[in-house]
Amino acid sequence: MSVLIKICGLKTPAALDAALEAGADLVGFVFFAPSPRHIGFETARSLGERVRAGVRKVAVSVDADDALLAQCVDALKPDLLQLHGKETPERVAVIRSRFGLPVMKALPITERADLSSVPLYAGVADLLMFDGRAPRGATRPGGLGRRSIGACSRASISACPSCFRAVSTPAMSPKRSEWRAPTASTYPRA
Questions:
Q1: Of 103, 92, 33, 98, nearest in space to 70 by CA
Q2: Based on CB atoms within 10 Å of each CB, which residue in 23, 33, 167, 179 is the most buried?
Q3: How many other β-carbons are positioned within 10 Å of the β-carbon of residue 45?
Q4: Residues whose CB falls within 8 Å of the CB of residue 17, separated by 6 or more in sequence, listed in order
Q5: Which domains does the chain have, with CATH numbers?
Q6: Which candidate, 104, 62, 61, places its Cα nearest to that of 80?
Q7: Measured over all CA atoms, what is the biggest interatomic distance in the chain, rounded to whole angstroms?
Q8: pLDDT (0 to 100) of residue 174
């Protein structure tokens, strides 16, 4: 199984250069004011121009309206939109259609019951990202370094059919230059 590396929250040329030199497949830029990793549109434009061919730029937002997303797309020219808020499956589908870009939906996972939302998003998002649920009262919904349950590990895929279907939604190929739908052999059962 191939692994893709995404380094997110990049704010400076030095941090971006380090991520690129380390071989990142995806580089993420956060457009969410409460985050300490938030960047403005001019910084996004400048950093986006530094990203070399073959590396995917990801615009990360939280419950953004269309106007904000349009500004993010205009400034960064992302290859992928990452939605990290409480966007519904319907909203994900609208964003994907409106902006014509692949969408990664982050889902907060703390316990097995949280996986019930996976089938709802698997049909509308190009990629799903499982993130530890933020604690009550947090100012940010994720990206906090919290662990999620191991329910989506290779060892448990065979025990979780909805997880397997979600992981099998379209994904990026290891060649970075094309999107492909993985086969069952891409995610071996334990």
A1: 98
A2: 167
A3: 14
A4: 50
A5: 6-186 (3.20.20.70)
A6: 104
A7: 46
A8: 36
Residue 47 to residue 130: CA distance in whole angstroms:
26
Give tens-digit pLDDT for 120-159.
998 899 988 877 655 566 555 555 444 444 334 333 333 3
Query: Considering only CA atoms, which of 98, 3, 11, 82 is closest in space to residue 47?
Result: 11
pLDDT for 179 beyond 80: no
What is the residue type of 175?
K
Separation between Cα atoms, residue 84 and residue 95, nearest integer Å: 13
CA 11, 142, 154, 179 torsion-angle sign: negative
Structure tokens at 43: 């910084």
Q: What's residue 107's pLDDT?
A: 86
Helices (H), the chain: 13-21, 41-50, 66-76, 89-99, 118-122, 154-157, 161-167
pLDDT, tens digit, 9 for 90 and up, residues 81-114: 999 899 999 999 999 999 999 999 988 877 777 7
